[in-house]
Amino acid sequence: MAEERKAVKLREALAAAQLYYRQDFTMQAIAKELGVSRSSVSRLLSYAKESGLVEIRIHSPQEARSRVEQRFAERFGVTAHVVPVAGRLSENEQLERTAQVAAHLIAASVKARSIVGVAWGSTISAVTKYLPSTSKHGVQLVQMNGAANVYSTGVQYTTELLGGFAERLSAEVFQLPVPAIFDDPATREALWRERSVARVLDLQAAANLCVFGLGSRIGDPRSHIYSGGYLGSDDLSELASQGVVGDCASRFYRLDGSTAGIPINDRSSGPSFEAVRRAPQRICVVSGAMKRDSLRGALAAGLITDVVVDEALARLVLAAG
Predict the structure, then answer these.
(1) Same domain for 55 and 126?
(2) pTM exceeds 0.90 for this model
(3) The total number of structural domains that make up the chain
(4) Which own/partner contact pairs does 146-153 have at CB distance under 8 Å and 24+ positions apart?
(5) 190 and 107 inside one domain
(6) Pairing of strands 79-83, 115-118
(7) Over the Cα atoms of the chain, what is R_g?
(8) Which domain, by its residues, includes 129?
(9) Which residue among 35, 52, 61, 106 is the one 20 to 30 A from 78 at the CA level?
């Protein structure tokens, strides 16, 4: 019985420490989240320090990760940053908390003279709000995929997203002002030969850090590529017939990570997966149960070196095998 009480206390102390140190919650907010008094939160934080939880989970994550993080790393060969979330939170609230953790990881990963490839999307837009301000010399940001469609040039959307990154990272921005999905692959091939576009593509190829979310073809209205007018009904039918589960930077893939034989990829403005994998560090930010197969496919494709994921989704992916 004593061991059971100790285990419960350890879990509560860990939850309090993660909310306090990783997500910047006040003690009052933690008390409301956990359904305890403010004084109880104070005692839990003290216990977390005394028992070494803070040192392990917050200060020295490389020495010991949570069990879920360890299992995820061992299974998929990536560095996992699992964000604890309460079961009663909405998926949008889970996304915001995941984005907050990801923002700090991304800022810490940017070094002087880094070339950072950024793929637009709802998840990365959320990350932008939480990026801490840093000042590293010579940082360049490059847009990984076009954003124009038949309704919009996409310039305002990507300018706001990349502008947020640039302001906080003191970086120079290189946009890719082309459609997300071309009508004709020949148009893309011709435009790719233009020197102004080729310069951006060269920067993409030289990126040493890529930051991206994942789109989900099924059931997630937040996936901008599917809900924002980029795909017609024929495109959506084609993706379904090809067994597509998601996209990374407007490049579509199946559950096994394969992209071959998916015709729409010939019209995509996004980089090939071979090009993405050349970046030494590739941070994927993903949240929500509907992204389960999207994340599984991206892991199978070898796109990810670091994943920031909410705990519920991480467990779903592990359970799926």
Answers:
(1) no
(2) no
(3) 2
(4) 146/176, 146/177, 146/178, 146/179, 146/180, 146/250, 146/269, 147/120, 147/180, 148/177, 148/178, 148/179, 148/180, 149/179, 149/180, 149/181, 149/228, 149/229, 149/230, 150/229, 151/229, 152/229, 153/177
(5) yes
(6) unpaired
(7) 21
(8) 66-320
(9) 52
55 and 75 inside one domain: no
Last residue of a domain, one of 64, 95, 110: 64
Residue 203 and residue 60 share a domain: no
53 phi/psi in degrees, rounded to 5: -65, -40
Encode the chain (321 residues) as per-residue pLDDT tens digits. 667 777 778 888 888 888 888 887 888 888 888 888 888 888 888 888 887 777 544 443 333 347 899 999 999 999 999 998 876 788 889 999 999 999 999 999 999 999 999 998 889 999 999 999 888 899 999 999 998 764 554 556 677 888 899 999 999 999 998 999 999 999 999 999 999 999 999 999 999 999 999 998 765 555 667 766 778 888 888 999 999 999 999 999 999 999 999 999 999 999 999 999 999 999 999 999 999 999 999 999 999 999 999 999 999 999 997
The 10 Å CB-count burial string (b at 16+, else e) for 133-148 is eeeeeebbbbbbbbbb
Check which CATH number belongs to the domain holding 282 and give it: 3.40.50.1360
Give yes or no: residues 53 and 161 share one domain: no
Both 197 and 226 in a single domain?
yes
CB 204 within 8 A of CB 271: yes
- SS3 category, 256: coil
- Which of 44, 64, 84 is the last residue before a domain boundary? 64
Q: Identify the three-state secondary structure at position 128.
A: helix
93/51 same-domain check? no
pLDDT on residue 108: 94
Cα distance between residue 172 and residue 189, in whole Å: 27
The answer to whether residues 59 and 98 belong to one domain is no
Total residue length of the chain: 321
User: Backbone dihedral region of 250: left (phi > 0), alpha (psi from -120 to 50 degrees) or beta?
Assistant: left
